[in-house]
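Researcher: Here's the sequence for the chain we discussed earlier.
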Amino acid sequence: MDVDLVVPLKHPREGKSRLRGALAGVAHAELVLALAYDTLAAVTSVAAVRRVLVVAADPAAVSELAGLGVELVKESRDGGLNEALRHGEALLRDGDPAGVVGALQADLPALRAGDFAAALAEAAGARAFVADRQGTGTTLLLSAPGAPLDPRFGAGSAQRHTASGAVALAAGLGSLRSDVDTSDDLRYAAALGFGKRTAALLPAETVPMG
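Model: Thanks. This is the structure I predict for it:
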């Protein structure tokens, strides 16, 4: 089943605050952009993904992402992650009110297109989500066709999405569960294998392993 995605993105200087200064010699904004670039490169290669709408705090700061075929829009004035997702959902629904809308985090540098396609296949049109590898957060939320996305991201979002009726996808989906918030997450993603942009910026042997 085809899907249109909303991907929220803070200004690269401000995103991923827990990684700030974690890697000597790597500019923080450049790292944040690399994580997003590889995430988007993976999903835009999936045939079932029709549109990808990046809701950015500053579209000009991430303009290079448009080269991947994604659309860039400015987040609404209200701010906040869930509000950004609802804003993006509304824009996508203008194009297809009956479609499936997904919310994807922009920090999945090891994401494999096969894992993303497998998640869509398992969801099979149900409102569903993929929990992170710790089982507490959410990396992907999918609406049912034409139904509200109803994003509840934030601390403990996996439990909140379950309580709201979303189905937790059970397949392995290792690369789709491996979002990067901390140095430990970065090490884990490095072991899976970064996408090209992150790998060029951060060869695996340069990632501190302890």
